Amino acid sequence: MPQITYVRTDGTSDTVEVPVGTSVMRGAVREGVAGIVAECGGAGMCGTCHIFLPEEQRLARGIAPIHPLEDEVLETTSCPRRENSRLGCQLAVTERCDGLAVDLPEHQVLP
Amino acid sequence: MAGSPIVVVGAGQGGMQAAASLRDAGFDGPVTLVGAEPQPPYDRPPLSKQYLNGEVDAAALALRTPAFYQNQDIDLRVDTRVAGIDRANAAVVLDSGARLPYERLILATGSIPRRLPVPGADHPGVLVLRTLAQARVLRDRLAAPRRVVVIGAGFTGLEVAAAARSAGHEVTVIEALDRVLARAVSVPVSEHVTRLHRGRGVDIRFGRQVEAIEGEADGPLRAVRLAGGESVPADLVVVGIGVVPDTALAAEAGLAVANGVVVDAYLRTSDPAIHAIGDCALFPSPFADDPLRLESVQNAVDQAKCAAEFIAKDGLAARPYSAVPWFWTDQYSDKLQIAGITTGHDRTELAGDPEQGRFSVHCFRGERLVGVESINRPAEHIKARRQLAAAGTLAGAV
């Protein structure tokens, strides 16, 4: 099973096994990884599974580019989006994701 | 409250969240989560969407890993039925006769599909969709070409219709009222969703009452017969005419029950040691004049968090439940999102262009914005939720 690492802003991280066919969001939530909220459960409509994915990682892992609706949701995240912002729920996990590391924002909902 | 056991009955989205949130809120006593279904808590919305169309399998639906329950010291009992609540002795009695003593009890028993009260409705070719087991049967039946008749143009019925039509089946939707999602959304959104389905070749018939379902007793289905004599040929019927709250345990235990288990602003039932959350709870809301009962992931999750915090802190500095209700459905590749409670609005304002398939309907009652329905406008939806939350807090403070 691919292993994915979630890195928080305080430097702590969790590395968990994520089943192929699920998402980068689901992989974190099912293990109770802190730093991903996923209020909507993966519908791509709440902006609380915000992560940062370096473009070279995206290309190396064969992860799909951003969809216009995902792009729109990222305009509403509680931590301002950056160029490499994505919604974890929209990133399908494949074998190629093994070893992937993503950065988490400071918060997912307004404090 | 260390050492005081908490029992959660119902291991759906709400029950699971309640158990997890008790730990998040620092509760370190025993937590037992009891579910009747055979598998650990799973994600229900995909059952009528990605699971039905084969995009995800059952294993991918688990809300948490087995290790999560172990690490959090949550005693998860699946495949376990509850026979009753012994309030005098504060214990949940299982079907096996075993007793689970509780200091606090959380009822998260969910809801049950409403049955179609016509002859033939018990034919094995007539399905409902609520559980993974039911979804599995439906998915298997859809493996071969079918003439599918969906009874009820609500969210579940339309999602099933979309999945079946996308897989190439012949699909007819029978609706008693004069538009789709009539109890849930405004007319412009109804019209958009109807256009989507008809554009894909779904035959939607409004204002029709089902009189009987016809088929061989031990053989295939034949047709759905409508009032007035019309007959729709069918190999498979899916009934989606809503759900009723599962209040049996609460009622037998003598708790106040109406259209749901009656709870106060802190989600306590008429017995303060017992909370009720999610689909089964009838609760006061700053977003509606009358008590609400909502069937949504949002409602289950937010009420679970609220009840867990109340219990973990023993009611100290408790906050009443005041989350903004929101909901979504996928219809083909369109996303419909609802913020607030739009039923009972008396005026609407349209933003965006329905012709382009991207628009929002702002629903007002008098001067007050009560909700926003959006088609493919997620940012608008999120903005509306924030706006309603701010207004709700204001209303609560006055």
Commentary on this structure:
The complex is a heterodimer of chains A (111) and B (398). Chain A contains three helices and five strands. Chain A has 111 residues and is α+β, with helices and mostly antiparallel strands. Chain A has a three-stranded mixed β-sheet. Chain A has a two-stranded antiparallel ribbon with strand order 3-4. In chain A, a hairpin with a 5-residue loop joins strand 1 and strand 2. The relative contact order of chain A is 0.29. In chain B, the strands form seven sheets. Chain B has a five-stranded parallel β-sheet with strand order 3-2-1-7-20. Chain B has a five-stranded parallel β-sheet with strand order 9-16-10-11-12. In chain B, strands 22-23-26-25-24 form a five-stranded antiparallel β-sheet, sandwiched between helices. The longest helix of chain B has 20 residues. Chain B has three domains: 176 residues, FAD/NAD(P)-binding domain (3-Layer(bba) Sandwich), CATH 3.50.50.60; 127 residues, FAD/NAD(P)-binding domain, CATH 3.50.50; 65 residues, FAD/NAD-linked reductase, C-terminal dimerisation domain (Enolase-like, domain 1, 2-Layer Sandwich), CATH 3.30.390.30. The model of chain B has no long low-confidence stretch (mean pLDDT 95). Chain B has 398 residues and is an alpha/beta fold.
What's the helix count of chain A?
A: 3
Q: Give me the Rg of chain A, rounded.
A: 12 Å
Tally the beta strands of chain A.
5
Report, as a whole number of angstroms, the end-to-end distance of chain B.
34 Å
Q: State the assembly state of the protein chains.
A: heterodimer
| Cα-based radius of gyration of chain B, to the nearest Å | 22 Å
Q: H/E series of chain A, N to C?
A: EEHEHHEE
Outline type of chain A = globular
Structural class of chain A: alpha+beta
* Total separate domains of chain A: 1
Query: What fraction of residues of chain B sit in β-strands?
Result: 25-35%
Largest sheet of chain B: 5 strands, parallel
